[in-house]
Structure formats: C-alpha cells, structure tokens
Amino acid sequence: MLIILLPVFTGFGEIFQRTFGNLSNGIASKLLTGLLSVSFIFSVISFFAPLTFAVELSTVAVGLIAFFHYRSYVKFWDFFSDKGLSFSVIALISIFFAAGYPFILDHFGYFVPTVKWVAEFGLVRGISNLDLLLGQMSVWHILQAGFSHFSDPFLRINLLMIITYLIYVYENKAWTHLIFFPVLYFFIQSPSPDLPAIVLSLIILNEVLLQNKNYGLVFTLSVLVFAIKPTIVWLPLFVGFHIFFISKSGIKALFPGSVLLLLFLFKSIWVFGYPVFPVQVIDLDWSWKPNVELLRNSSEMAIQKTYDMQFTIAEIAKFSSLDYLKNWLFLDGIKGKIHLFFIISLLVFLVFAVRQKSKLIWLLFTTIMFKTFLVLVFSAQYRFLLDVFFVVFFIIFYKTFTQKRCIAMFGVLSLAVALLLSFPVLMTKVFPGFKLGNFMTGFSKNQWYKPSYFELNKFKSYQIGNLKFNVVQNYPFSFDTPLPAISPQFIQEDLDAGIFPQMKGKSLKEGFIWKKITEEEKTQIRKILDEWAVENQD
User: Fold this and answer.
1) Alpha carbon distance 110, 484 (integer Å)
2) What is the pLDDT of residues 111-138, one digit of tens each?
3) What is the pTM of this model?
4) Which residues of 393-432 are buried (b: 16+ CB within 10 A; e: fewer)?
C-alpha cells in the first residue's frame, strides 16, 4: 500500500502545488496537498458514481505518471538516504502496529460498512434511514473507499497518514510530535477518522506557529479536518480568525476552504438530511431525513454515553445543573478520571495563555473552549475531547524537547503500548473501565507478512416492503455482510418506532426513505429479531 500510495499522493501533490502553491518545501507538503486533492475528487465523484476498481486504477495511473514526470522519485531517494536509522525504525514500528487486528467497535459497525457503500454505490441519498450511523460518511472513509480494491484492500490508510506525519516531523525537525505516535497507534489498525484529524490538526497548528504565509491552503486543510471529523470544529475557526484578525490577509484567503465546506455540508444533507451529523439544526424538511423518533433515541443515547451508560435517561433528566457536572467529573472507572484530567488540562492551558500574553495563544484557547462548550452541550463523551489533550501538550511543550529525548520517549511509550496490546487482559486489569480491552486480541505472527483481519460472512436475507436486505448472524455488526445490510440493533429501533426503511426508487443508488409499517410487517420484523436472538445465543 505504501509503495503504491506514497507516489500517487505525491504525484497529485505535484499537480496541485503547480496551481495553488505549497504548504512548505519537501515531500510531506506534496503528500498533504495530494491527500487534499484526491479527497476532493473522490467526494465529487461519489455523488454520481461508486468509487469502483476503474476509478481507483485511473487515480493510481494519474498519480504515478505525475510522480515520474516531475521526477519526484529523486526527492524520495534523497530524503530516505539521508534520514538515518531512527526514521527507518520508527517507520517499521508503525507498519507493525498497523498490521494488527482492528479492535475499535466502530470499525465493524461504521467504518467498514461506510467504505463498502461508497465503493459499491457512492454516496446514497438518505442512507441514514437504513442505518443511522451511515449518515456520518466521513471524507476519510470516502478516500479509503477509493483505494479499497487493490491499493489498500485491508483498509490501513491510517498507516499512510502516520508515515506522512513522520516525514513531516523529520523534514521540519519538529521532534515533539514523535511523542504522540505511540498514542496514535491505538487508531492505526482501522480507517478511524480520529487519527488523520489529530495528525492534520497538529501539522496545521505547527504551520501557524511557523507563520506559514499560504493562508488559503492552511485554511482549506483545516476545513478538510472538519470534514473528516466535525468535532475538530475549533481548527477552522482558529485558522479563519487568525487569518482575518491577526494576519489581516483578507477574506479572499477563506474562499477555497469555503468551497470545500459547502461540499461537506451538501454531502451531509444528501446522506443525512441535515448539514452536520448528528446535529438536527437547519431543518429544510427533506423527504429523506431520518424519522424523528430515531433521532430522539439517538440524542438520548448520546446523553447516556456522556455518563458511560451509568444512568438512565430518566435519572439524567432529574439532574440539577450541579449534578450534570459532578456526575460527569466523578464517573466510576477510567472515564471519570479522563474527564477530571481534561478539566485540569484546560486550567493549565488557561494559566499558560495568561503567562504568554500572546494573541495567537488566546485565540487558540478561545476556540478550544468553544469546541468544549459544544461537546458538553451535545454529548460530552471523552472520545470527542481527545484532540484537546494533544493540542494542550503540544502548545505548552512546543520545541522544548531535543531529538534524542523525543526518540527515547517514543521508544518507552511504544513499548508500553505494545505490551498493552499484546496482553489485553493486563489492559482490563490496569484500567477496569476500559471496555475496548475486552475486544483486543493481541498480536499475531501472521501480521509480519499480512495484515490481520476478521472474516464472518454469515447472514440471512429478508424482505420488508420493497426492500430486500441482509442481516448478520452470530454478531451484532454487519461489517462483511453483503449490501444492503441492517444490523439487528437498528431493526429493533425501527420496530420500536413503528417504521422501516424503503428504497426511494427502483435501485439502491436512488436512496432510502422510511415508511410506517403495518401490523403484519411488525410481526415479520419480530420474527427476524427472534431468529437472530436464537442464532446469536447459540
């Protein structure tokens, strides 16, 4: 995958930079602008057609032609022959971690199904009626879908992002970033949007601190991060306000990023019915928007997850304002400790901003606080706050550590992460509230030559109304079930709401709506769920 896609993204970066300028001199800049270019192209194509083998082949061909035409291979040779042993060792460690078994639950319930839909059908209008989670359709998964046929069939594009990040670190001698790599290894086995969102936000923040003058490109990349993970809303706000109020370069620099933002908002409306998933604002009453009851259930679930499912929605409704904060801060288990550490980090950041007396630092603190406020209002789950820890650490210790110290810290932390992933039981004992530890399988000897992945391929087919669909067996998530697939959880939610998804036209590409179901259809659906429960029990 790296042998193919590093040159391909570099080739597209060469084409991009000859028209729109570069982020900086070096290979990383070309890789990042290439990533931006291909993400935009794939997003546009996916509205009209699936990202098939032919699309992937054409993209790879164009990228490779540009790579050799502009003699980029010379720069690669100069770079890799000059960086020494430490770069190669870190790259190999990254590859090894990337080859492990995926264990993030969203990989099976959201990432893989999204990639399959985009690769086989493109962006489908109202897809959230079939499975509400599919209404997210991150740009990162659109990019992954475009390379899922032969370049990256094991869906390890996050490794490409890590190697790009590593190249950036060595080109810019930004050694503090190396300390983040071991933590990012928890996200590298899946096409998790958290990893590229965190990596790109740190790179962009570094470029702002370096006073990068290509404001239009920096802002556009910040919007790309928002399109990958909307909870990183602070980044385009920070960069946009910096351009407008501190650098005073004018509103013209915001135009390219605004085009990308409009594409993202239109994409969200197309698949979900609202501009930003899962927020139900700006309701234009599109015929394909999800059922109100399902959206209410989703909102209630998000509130319960704020408190790690330790309280019912009825109990939460009785909380006083003080209870909301107290119960969130002092949850049982590791998540309560993370919440407390988050508040301490913000206080440390505040003290740092006061001492620095810098407009830029205060702007960053303000936008981080705005993002925190939004998360606290909608769903204050710790996973939506992770990026803030990286930002606070980076901004405080920017250029503090030497290369040797950073490499040493990388080594120690990587060893710790390897031990935790190798012995998942140890993980659950050290952190009893860390539920993901129960899904970790440790390393496999086979991953030295082939990425580890799961296969199930057990399903049954049914039909309700005009929709023929498949239901996974012996597992709750439809990660390798032929499309269209509906997970049992969503079938139950549809039944509870008295609705069921239907095709909008005669083909799946035309999209989905929902309809109220009859008593006879309710009986059919109960039978499907009963069969699944029996199979799952066995």
Assistant:
1) 14
2) 999 999 999 999 999 999 999 999 999 9
3) 0.94
4) bbbbeeeebeeeebbebbbebbeebbebbebbeebbeebe
